[in-house]
Each structure stands twice: as C-alpha cells, then as structure tokens.
Write a structure and sequence with these properties.
Helices cover 44% and strands 14% of the residues. The longest helix is centred in the middle third of the chain and has 16 residues, at 173-188. The chain has 20 helices and 15 strands. It has helices at residues 4-10, 21-26, 48-59, 90-104, 124-127, 132-138, 145-149, 152-158, 168-171, 173-188, 200-214, 251-259, 263-272, 278-290, 296-310, 312-326, 331-335, 339-345, 363-368, 377-385, and strands at residues 16-17, 31-36, 63-68, 119-122, 190-196, 219-223, 236-237, 240-241, 351-354, 361-362, 389-391, 394-395, 402-403, 413-418, 422-428. The strands form four sheets. The protein has a six-stranded mixed sheet, sandwiched between helices. The chain has a five-stranded mixed sheet with strand order 9-15-14-11-12. The protein has a two-stranded antiparallel sheet with strand order 7-8.
C-alpha cells in the first residue's frame, strides 16, 4: 500500500484529519467518499481539489466513491454560505448528475476490473423513499440539537453574520450528510469521508452517527480551501467560474487561467492539481527559480492540468492559440481555430461589421471606409505601403489588394492588424 496520507501531506492537501486515519488506511485497501454538489451540469476547478484527492486515493490502492448529492442538492449546504441557495427539481438534478459522471471519468477509473475501481452513487437513491417520520425516528434521535448547533457552519448563520438566518431545511443538512456516511459505511464498507475544510462539521457528524448507531469507528479528512496569493477567490475570473465543460470555458481559456497564475500560486497548485511526483515538482520549482521570467513552472502546470481535463490535442491547440497575439503565428494556424477559441483569443478586440455583399473589396475601402480600423484612406494607404498592415496574419503590401471570401475565418470573420499590437475583428454580417 502507498501511504495516502503522506502523499497528501507533502502536497499541502491536508487541513484536518481524525486521529487514527493514517494507521487505518495502511492496514489495507478501504473505501472513502467525497460528496459533490450537483447544482450545475459541469464541475469547475473549485471541485478539482476533492477530485484530485479521490484520484490519489485510487492511485494508492483504495476505492474512491464519488457521491453526487441528488437529495442534499435539493436542500443546499449552509456551510460557509451567507444565504440559502435555490432548490433544483429532480429532472435538472438527473441531467447534472449524468454530466458530472462523464467529467469524473477523466480522472477516475470507473470501468476496469480492478477491485478498487471507482463508483458513483447518488444519495437520492436511498433518500427518495425515506419518509420524514422514519428519518426523525431512526436517525434524528441519535444526534442532539446541542451537538448540531455547536458546528461552526451553523453558529455563523445564527450569530447574525448572515442576513436571513437559517431555515430548518438547511439546519437538517448535516444530519442528511451524516446519514449518507452511515449508509455508505453499511452498504459499501466506506470508512472514510473526505472533503473541503468547510465540510469538517458535516463530516464529523457522520462519523459520530456511525459511532452512536453502529458502535463502529469511522474517519474524516479535509483539505484546505484553496486561495490565491493576492487574496482573490480561487477559480474565479471577471467572467465567473473556470468550468471543466469546454462549452462553458474553452480549453484555451482554461489553459490561460493556469498559465497566468503567480509564481507562488504555481508552486502551490502544481502539487495539488497534477500527478507529478515530488522529484519532478522539486526539480521544476528549482529550474523555475533560476529563470522565473520564462514562466516554465506555469507552462508545466498548464500543460498537465489542461491535458488531464481536455486531452493532449486540445492542449496543443491551446498552446498554438496562445501564440496568436504575441508569437509568430501563421495564417494556417489562425484559420484552423474554431470560432469559440478565435473569439476567446481576441476577446476585447475592437470589432466592426461589414455586409457580406461588399466582398470582394479593396483593402483600403475595407479598413478605412467600411470599417474604422483607420480614420482615413490616406493613413491606411501609407501604413500598407510601409508594410504595417496584416490580414489574417499575412502582410498586405499592395494598396490595390482585394479581400474576398477566401479570407473569412470560420466563414464570418477577418482579423486585421495595424502595426505589431493593434488587432481588429471584421465580422461579416
């Protein structure tokens, strides 16, 4: 057995751990679970810490269980939240669960014949026929209100930090999550629950329930909540979450997120979000320290995570797309970009619309009459003659050059460039 706790420890992935957990795991293969909230049909990189913990768990010879909260997702977890969340209907939850499993399959082995292959469970399956009276009688009587109110997640909501207080629905959440642990202990031999640091209260309620009802010992482990060096929220950009779904966050944007993290964050993230060994990481950090301006650590981090989530081909495309703004990209490379990536690369670039019937059109008319890339035809003419104008990454030296449909990117865009750094998009309307 590989020492799972030791693996997490050097990676900086342990916040709290119940005494005896490490020893229990070294006795032999066991099962552990992480709960995932299915409030969206995609995971985002905030979920990846828990997913990587499951991946390491499986890699160390144990059986990972991913629990999607089809039942608890209908309620909403109050932990570290300032207000109650919207409740989802059953059809939406079912759709979200199916999408999440497909994404988890990129990290975990669900399909092999290995004894420790991963398993996906949905707590709606065992909660849907559990009546309120049965739950109150069989589970509720074992945990006191005093015990539940002592949890930090509850105290913060009741202390006035939250504007709207806490509903009874949310108050029951830790009991429902506790029952999940009890159920998986009895039916799946699951002896350990893992999650983010904000879940410690809910997780220990589960281990306490197992102790009180079964007289058995169960264990708990949490990882730190990931932060950014500048104090900003990890995984958030001006446009919101960084999603694993390529339709929500393009592989190019995903790659760029990791490429642009700070040096200190790169050192932390490469341990948490990759499967690279300690030796490989220590070597990469040392090399980076010799020439930090080359950002080799960020490039390695971005490569590893993008390849794991989106595959090698999308990683290569993202690298190629990254060269569009500052590298020596070719017209062929530009024309090969899909529309979503093209728009992501040139996000924020001034855009002009030109009617399709205007084409073919002379370069001067296109850039100075039908669009405002240049304020006048005279200025445009001078810039073309000075070799300072490019269309789709190719220099245009002829002031009489005609631009036709063969120059359309994805059938509806032209990229104009004035000088080295000034880009413009002409959209064919």
């Amino acid at each position: 057995m590989k020492n799972f706790v030791e693996e997490l420890r050097w990676r900086g992935m342990i916040q709290d751990i119940m005494p005896g957990t490490e020893e229990k795991l070294m006795e032999g293969s066991t099962a552990a679970y992480v709960g995932i909230d299915p409030t969206a049909d995609s995971l985002h990189i905030g979920h990846m810490v828990s997913i990587m913990i499951l991946k390491h768990f499986q890699n160390c010879g144990h059986k990972p269980i991913a629990l999607v909260g089809g039942a608890t997702g209908m309620i909403g977890d109050p932990s570290m939240k300032s207000q109650e969340r919207n409740l989802l209907d059953e059809e939406t939850l079912s759709h979200n669960v199916a999408c999440i499993k497909a994404q988890l399959s990129k990290f975990l082995d669900f399909e092999s014949d290995a004894a420790n292959k991963a398993e996906l469970v949905n707590n709606y399956d065992w909660m849907k026929n559990f009546t309120f009276l049965d739950f109150a009688r069989e589970i509720g009587k074992h945990i006191t209100v005093n015990y539940m109110m002592a949890k930090d997640s509850v105290k913060k909501r009741l202390s006035g930090e939250a504007r709207d207080g806490m509903s009874f629905t949310e108050f029951t959440y830790q009991l429902l999550q506790g029952y999940d642990f009890l159920y998986l202990y009895e039916h799946k031999g699951c002896t350990l629950q893992m999650g983010g640091a904000d879940q410690w209260g809910n997780i220990t309620t589960g281990s306490e329930l197992i102790r009180r009802i079964l007289g058995k010992e169960a264990f708990a482990l949490t990882c730190p909540l990931i932060t950014k060096a500048d104090g900003g929220k990890f995984g958030k950009t001006e446009k919101g979450n960084i999603w694993l779904d390529p339709e929500r966050t393009s592989p190019y944007q995903f790659y760029q997120f990791w490429l642009n993290v700070s040096d200190s964050d790169a050192e932390k993230y490469i341990k948490i979000f990759t499967m690279l060994s300690k030796e490989e990481i220590d070597s990469a950090i040392a090399q980076h320290a010799e020439a930090p301006e080359r950002r080799e650590l960020q490039k390695l981090l971005a490569k590893e995570v993008t390849t794991m989530v989106h595959g090698a081909a999308e990683y290569e495309n993202a690298v190629a797309a990254s060269g569009m703004l500052f590298g020596n990209a070719t017209k062929d490379a530009l024309m090969s970009l899909d529309e979503k990536t093209f728009l992501a690369v040139f996000d924020g670039v001034p855009t002009f619309e030109v009617a399709a019937e205007k084409f073919p059109i002379g370069i001067i008319d296109l850039l100075a009459a039908e669009s405002q890339v240049f304020p006048s035809k005279g200025e445009c003419r001078k810039m073309v003659q000075a070799n300072g104008v490019s269309i789709n990454k190719e220099k245009v030296a002829d002031i009489n050059a005609q631009i036709g449909q063969e120059s359309f990117i994805n059938g509806k865009y032209i990229l104009a460039q004035k000088g080295k750094k000034n880009y413009f998009i002409i959209k064919i309307a």
